[in-house]
Amino acid sequence: MSKKAIKPSLKNPFAPPEKVEFNIPGEISRATGGYEVAMKEGHDLIQRPIKSVSIDQIEKQHFKKRMTVWERIRVLTEMEPNILFQNWGKNLDGASLVTGILNIHGRDVAVYGHDFTVRAGSMDATNGNKLARLFQMAGEKGIPLIGMNDSAGAFVPAGVGGLDGYAEAFTALRKISGVVPSIMCMFGFNAGGGSYLPRQGSFVIQPKDTFFGLTGPGVVKSVLGEDVTPEDLGGPKVHGLSGVADLTVEDEVGALRAAVMLLNYLPDNNSVMAPFQETSDPLDRKTWEINTLLKKAFNSPTGFNTPFDVSIIIQQICDHGDYFEMQPDRARNAVTAFGRLGGNVVGFVANNSAVDSGQIDVDAAYKIARFNRFCNIYNIPIIFMEDTTGFLPGREQEARGIVQAGRAMLDSIVDIRTPRILLILRNAYGGAYASYNNYPTGADLVLALPTTRLAVMGPAGKEFVYKDELRKLRTAVTERVKRGILERIEAGVKEDSARNDAEKEAADWLKAQEAELNLRYEKELMNPKEALSLGSISSLVMPTDLRKVLGENLNFFLRHYKASPMQAVQREFH
Questions:
Q1: Do the Cβ atoms of 234 and 194 come closer than 8 Å?
Q2: Which of 90, 169, 293, 353 has the smallest number of Cβ neighbours within 10 A?
C-alpha cells in the first residue's frame, strides 16, 4: 500500500471553515446579488498577494533563514500596517513589492519591502512607479523611510520596463535625500539596481549570510574568470570595512531592531529636531569613571603616550550611558555615534587613540565627513572630541588620496550650521588640529581637559624649537667619544673595546639629554596654557564635570537654534 504524500499547509485542520460574511451585523440574510459578488471579489483581491503564495515558497524563505515581507513588517511594529498602492495585476504585476505606512513608537514611517515569495521580489515597471510614489509621499509629508531589500533585480520578462522602474525609483529617492532620513535593510541576495537603490539611503544595515553588490559571483566568474564567494564579494565583512554598510548585524531580526533603534535618534525630516526624550539621569552627574580612566592611563609607565578607548568617555557623558555607534567596523581610529545628553540627540565625533594613536587616515576622514554631513542636514548638534597626533603619513595614504579625504573632512566641518562643541582630550597637533572644528573653522565653543597637549608639532617639534642646542649636543658627542676612547686606552683597555664602550656611553648621554629636552618641550609648549591665553580654547574643564559642562552649554546653544532645512549651497565634498 503506497503512502500518500503529505503536503504542508498553513491551514489548521481543526479550525472551522473560514467564511467571510458581507452582511451588516444583525441583518437578516437574504438572497445575494451583484453587490455581494463584488464584495467577495474585492476581498479576494485584497488578500491575493498573501493568500496566493504557496506554502512551499514560504518554506523556502524560512529554510534560508529569511522571513517573508509580512513577517518583517510585524517585527517593525505591532500596529496594523496601512498598505498602500495595492496595484497587483492579473499576473501579480507589482505584488513582488509591498509599500505602506507603519506606526512605529507613535511615528509615521514609510516602508517598502520586496516579497521574495512572488517573482523573487523582482522589479517590474509597476513596482518602480509604486516606489517612486511612496518616496514622493514620504518627502511631501516629511516622514522617515525604511526599506527592506530582498530582490533578484529587474524582472526579465518585463523587458526594459523593469529597468525604467528602477530608474524611476532611483530618481525619486535621490530627490528626497536630505529631506527625510532613510534606513535600508539588506536581506537575501541583491545585485545591480537592488544595490544602487538602497545605498542611496542615509544608512544601510546588513545581516550575516546576505549579499549585495554591483554584480554577483556568477558574472565575476564569466567576465574575469575569478572564483569568489558571495561573502568575499559583497558580504557584511566586506561592506562593513568599506563603509558601504553602516551597520552589520547577526540576522534579520537584529537588522530590523537596529533600524528601529536608529530611528529613535533621527528626526522625521530636515525641518525639525530629533525627538527629545525625558531622562532621569541628572545633567550634573559627576563623571568619576572618566577621571579614573585618564588617571590610570597617564600615570602608567608610558605616561601621556598611553592609548585609551574614547568610547568609554562617550558612554559616561550620554544619558544612562546609552549611545549608538555608526560604522563601528570601519576606521576604528575614529568613533562616530549618536547619543543623548539631557534628553537631546547629539552626534559624537571622536579620535580614538586606542587604534593607530587616533591618527586620521583616508577611511577615518571619509567616515567623519559622511557623519558630519548627515548631522548638519538634519539639525543634529555635534560634540567633537580631539585626541590625535595628526594625519597618518606614508606613501599608501598619499596614493589613496589622503589630501582629498582630509579636505572632505575639513569641508564638512566648515559647512556645519548646527550647534557644535570641541572638547580637546589630549593631543591636538598641526594640521589635524587646524581642520578639526576649532574656533576658526566655526566651533561655537572649544573646551579642553587639563591633560591637553596642543602644539604645532608633537615631541618631534623639539628639533625646530631647540635646534641650536641639539646641534651643540650632537657635535659634542664626537668629542665625548674621542675623550672616552683615550681614557679607556690609558686605563689599559684594548682599542676596539674602548671604542665600543665610549660610543655607547656617548649615545646614552645624548639620549638622556634629548629626553630632558622632550620634557622641557612638553612643559613649555605642549600644554593648554598658550592656547588658553590666545583664546583658542575658551576654558578648561575637569574630567569629573564633563557631562555637566557639555550638557549645559549644549542646552544653551539649542535654545537659540531654530531647526530648518539647509538654505545654502550644497557643496560637493567627495
A1: no
A2: 90
Assess whether pLDDT exceeds 80 at residue 18: no
How crowded is residue 286: how many other Cβ atoms within 10 Å of its Cβ? 16
- d(CA 523, CA 425) in angstroms, rounded, equals 17
Q: Is 347 a catalytic residue?
A: no
- pLDDT tens readout for residues 80-99: 898 887 766 555 566 788 99
Q: Which of 153, 193, 201, 216 is catalytic?
A: 193
What is the Cα–Cα distance from 431 to 422, expressed in whole angstroms?
Answer: 16
| pTM score of the predicted model | 0.85
d(CA 468, CA 306): 30
The residue annotated as part of the active site, out of 147, 192, 342, 484, is 192
The catalytically annotated residue of 172, 432, 506, 531 is: 432
Identify the active-site residue in 431, 434, 442, 460: 431
Residue 347, all three cell numbers:
552626534
Q: Among this protein's residues, is 89 annotated catalytic?
A: no
Instruction: Tell me, yes or no, if 432 is annotated catalytic.
Output: yes
What is the rounded CA–CA span in Å between residue 275 and residue 245?
25
User: Is 113 part of the annotated catalytic residue set?
Assistant: no
pLDDT of 350 > 80? The answer is yes
Q: 390: left (phi > 0), else alpha (psi -120 to 50), else beta? A: left
List pLDDT tens digits, range 310-325.
999 999 999 999 999 9
CA-wise closest residue to 359 among 396, 318, 324, 387 = 387
What is the reported pLDDT for 321? 96
